[in-house]
Every structure is written in C-alpha cells, then in structure tokens.
Amino acid sequence: MSDLTSPWVRRYAPLIPGGAVLDLACGSGRHSRHLAALGHAVVAVDRDAEALAAAAGPEIITSAIDLEEAGAVWPFGPDRFAGIVVTNYLHRPLMADMLTSLAPNGVLIYETFADGNAQFGKPSNPAFLLQAGELLEWARTHGLRVVAFEDGVIDTPKAAMVQRLCAVKPDFPRVAALLPPF
C-alpha cells in the first residue's frame, strides 16, 4: 500500500473479486505488491528482468515476456484473471486477447498516457498515447460495463495527460461495485 501506488489503482483494486490478478508491464511491482497485500495471487509481467527481480515477493509470480517482439503471442488463456491492471503502458495489438483473459466477473483497471501528453514531456509518440475516448471504445467493443472513467491532466507524480478506466465484465454484480468515497 505504498505511496507509489496509483491512486486510481488504490481506489478500484478492492472491487476485484477473489482470484489471480495480472499486473501487465508491472515494472518494479508497485501495483503487484498492493494487489498481493489485498489477498490476490499476482502474475507480474514485464520484459525487464531487472525490474521483475524487484517485483518478486510473496504471492507474486514474475514472468519476463516481451509482448512487443515480432511474432509475440498473448500467453494467457481465456477467463484466466479476476483482475487485470495496466498503468503507463499501451500496446494496442494486445487489447482483444488481454480482455479475453479477463474472467466473466473480472475487473479491468487501466491508466495510461493520452493524446496531449507531449506538452508535458514523454511519451509524446502517438503510438503510445490514447486517443480521445479510446478506452471507452475498447470497453464498448468488448462488452465491458464502465464503473469509472477519467480523461484529463494529473499533476502527481508528474504532470501528464491521462485516461483512466475501471470496467467490469458482464457477470460482475452491480451491487459489488461499492464505490469508495473521494
């Protein structure tokens, strides 16, 4: 429950039902540790073996996978994860397969940079920036129900333009979406 945990992840992670959680592009594991502290078995994936070494810990299985290399295939089966958490990462070719790996009552928590971020620095390449409404369109296309969405500027940990989404699969019970106070 480190101060490094994204407030967005901290706010919505308690909605994830029991089961394994994927922390995609986990870096040094700030969210993996938070999710494990909430009682989840975590699969932490990143291409950086050094970062993964820092992510390792109780209830955290690390896996060094470069999902952007030529010929890379999504390594997880359907309905595998109760939750999927992605922050500061965007690789559009993964989206459909990633969302297939979300359990029927699973929770997606996604937060990354959006178009307009160049004014604050990197990333500035459009390939790594969400377009207006892009996360909402993914949710609609894949039959997810949006619990929360934000699109705008943040100032912590540094100024950036971001989009944030918490969405659930159709079998997630509406009454389970107990929203914490601000």
Describe this structure in words.
Strand 2 (42-46), helix 3 (49-55) and strand 3 form a beta-alpha-beta unit. Strands 3-2-1-4-5-7-6 form a 7-stranded mixed beta sheet, with helices on both faces. The protein starts with 6 loop residues before the first helix and ends in a 14-residue tail after the last strand. The chain is globular. The longest helix has 8 residues, at 30-37. It contains 5 helices and 7 strands; from the N terminus they run H-E-H-E-H-E-E-H-E-H-E-E. By secondary structure, the protein is α/β, with parallel strands linked by helices.
Primary descriptors:
29% strand, 182 residues, globular, alpha/beta, 7-stranded mixed beta sheet
Per-chain topology:
Elements: H1 7-12, E1 21-24, H2 30-37, E2 42-46, H3 49-55, E3 60-64, E4 81-87, H4 95-100, E5 102-113, H5 134-141, E6 145-154, E7 160-168
Parallel strand pairs: 1-2, 1-4, 2-3, 4-5
Antiparallel strand pairs: 5-7, 6-7
Order of helices and strands: HEHEHEEHEHEE
Number of DSSP strands? 7
Give the helix proportion (percent range).
10-25%
Judging from the principal axes of the Cα atoms, what is the shape? globular
Structural class: alpha/beta
Q: Roughly what fraction of the amino acids lie in strands?
A: 25-35%
Q: What Rg is obtained from the alpha carbons, in whole angstroms?
A: 15 Å
